Amino acid sequence: xxxxxxxxxxxxxxxxxxxxxxxxxxxxxxxxxxxxxxxxxxxxxxxxxxxxxxxxxxxxxxxxxxxxxxxxxxxxxxxxxxxxxxxxxxxxxxxxxxxxxxxxxxxxxxxxxxxxxxxxxxxxxxxxxxxxxxxxxxxxxxxxxxxxxxxxxxxxxxxxxxxxxxxxxxxxxxxxxxxxxxxxxxxxxxxxxxxxxxxxxxxxxxxxxxxxxxxxxxxxxxxxxxxxxxxxxxxxxxxxxxxxxxxxxxxxxxxxxxxxxxxxxxxxxxxxxxxxxxxxxxxxxxxxxxxxxxxxxxxxxxxxxxxxxxxxxxxxxxxxxxxxxxxxxxxxxxxx
Length: 336
Fold this sequence. Notes:
Blueprint: E1 10-12, E2 17-22, E3 28-33, H1 35-45, E4 50-52, H2 60-71, E5 75-76, E6 87-93, E7 99-104, H3 115-123, E8 130-134, H4 143-155, E9 159-163, H5 174-185, E10 190-194, H6 195-201, H7 208-217, E11 223-227, E12 233-237, E13 242-247, H8 259-273, H9 287-305, H10 315-323, E14 327-333
């Protein structure tokens, strides 16, 4: 493990890959990416000491991924590269900037790990407070890697954050995939989910908010963060409070690649700065505190979507965006 100037606060586990993004001229541009990889960079760029747990390839793309993490200050739990190749995602972006993915993930480097390796790396980080995963790590094929790790981290009383971030286009058995994602979310203290994720999960409820409420009540989580694209985001607590936030200023959207990852990073950063833990949301919370969490999360995503690819903002950029006052709030249930 790399030498650390300050104790690791967050450990992340999941995919690191190369996004081959199709340009308007039909050419493909390789960009470093992957939901958990993006989250790791986004956390570190906002000043959080972050440990990425999965191995990376010794191939050209793997070296590029490692350089990207190190450049942003992310520590590598597995600094020695492995022989397996790097994961690839072919990305087509529509006219609204929304990406569509096709993944190539057999025999790849970021999957060359196991629960014991993940738990051992976390045990070597005595200041560790939060663990994060989601997206492709929630494939049923990787259950033996991530579920025992999540169980042990929850037992260690670390804050467990899981981003559903479904990728149904690459899961051949959608019913099995849904069931596994829901099983993995049972380990989470904080669930991040989009309206699209909820639709793929086919949860009861005629609106994304109703579906998110069902997800919260059927899980063990203390809160659920729901993103709804241009309609903003909501934060639901187990105690029954529901808070909303949206960007009121017009944004020049380049694309939405990495927006959800930056949103989650902003949320986790704000929780750490406020000293919140796995109990937050299980009892009454203040409106001021919830709005602070949402403001940081929305601002992080808003800055990201105005840049091509995933270029996470710095902490100062997020603070400046929040200070500009362009995030609007509302409360619909049980405010304090």
